[in-house]
Design goal:
The chain has two domains: about 150 residues, Glutaredoxin (3-Layer(aba) Sandwich), CATH 3.40.30; about 60 residues, 2-Layer Sandwich (Antioxidant, Horf6, Chain A, domain 2), CATH 3.30.1020.10. The chain is about 35% helix and about 20% strand. The chain is built from seven helices and ten strands. The strands form two sheets. Strands 2-1-5-4-3-6-7 form a seven-stranded mixed β-sheet, with helices on one face. Helix 5 runs antiparallel to helix 7.
Length: about 240
């Protein structure tokens, strides 16, 4: 059995995200609507369910922070649009919180199956808690898969978007437990001459442990991109 295909469908990191057009709680939406922006596309097993309700509230509360880094949110499940509308209205009536992003009604599960949101080991009809981070060029950059009984940690999704944007801008990578504005890992030297220069650089600046692992502070431009619109890339 191809477990990667079961979990991820035909969608893989680094590939173009599959296009779609669908009805949502905000009207018709398509992937093309988000060109030039980063997108967090996430699925949930069903409306009026406890864990999903907490996630809708948490995503809405964090939506402003996603917008600040040029990122939009888009939910999906195989429930009907009427069910979605009733659910978000119930959330508003009971909490005063208006869900601030569209939720796709994927009744025939075409989008869900195209993206690999349905795990046949769990259910043949319900989407599991998948998250796809799609960049402003509509390339899939991250895929997260959660079981149906564990809620997502929204700050980690936000951190991951910012880490991807920072790594792109700096032309490097982010370390374990990286947080915004922390140093970024410098790419590994490709020649012996570069290795010698890197060792000299580390000895002078005390910002690494060896030639293959050193750091540099993010540039003001990249910090600004991460905080605001991340328009364009800068190889620092």
């Amino acid at each position: 059995m191809n477990y990667e295909l079961l979990e991820n469908g035909n969608v893989r990191i680094g590939e173009k995200a599959p296009d779609f057009e669908a009805i949502s709680t905000f009207g018709k939406v398509s992937l093309k609507d988000y060109e030039g922006k980063w997108l967090v596309l996430f699925s949930h097993p069903g409306d009026f369910t406890p864990v999903c309700t907490t996630e809708m509230i948490a995503f809405t509360r964090a939506h402003t922070y996603f917008k600040e880094i040029n990122t939009e949110l888009l939910g999906l499940s195989v429930d009907s649009n009427s069910s979605h509308l009733a659910w978000v209205y119930d959330i508003y009536c009971r909490t005063g919180i208006k869900v601030s992003f569209p939720i796709i009604a994927d009744r025939n599960a075409l989008i869900a199956r195209r993206y690999g949101m349905i795990s046949n080991e769990m259910s043949t009809t319900e989407t599991v808690r998948n998250v796809y981070i799609i960049d402003d060029k509509q390339i899939v950059r991250t895929i997260l898969i959660y079981p149906m009984n564990v809620g997502r940690f929204i700050p980690e999704i936000l951190r991951t978007v910012r880490a991807l944007q920072m790594a792109d801008c700096m032309g490097g990578a982010t370390a374990a437990n990286w947080m915004p504005n922390q140093p970024v890992i410098v790419p590994i030297p490709q020649t012996y001459e570069e290795l010698e220069k890197r060792v000299e650089y580390i000895n002078k600046n005390r910002n690494g442990i060896n030639w293959y692992l050193s750091f540099k502070q993010p540039s003001e431009k990249c910090i600004g991109n991460s905080k605001n619109n991340n328009e364009g890339e800068e190889k620092c």
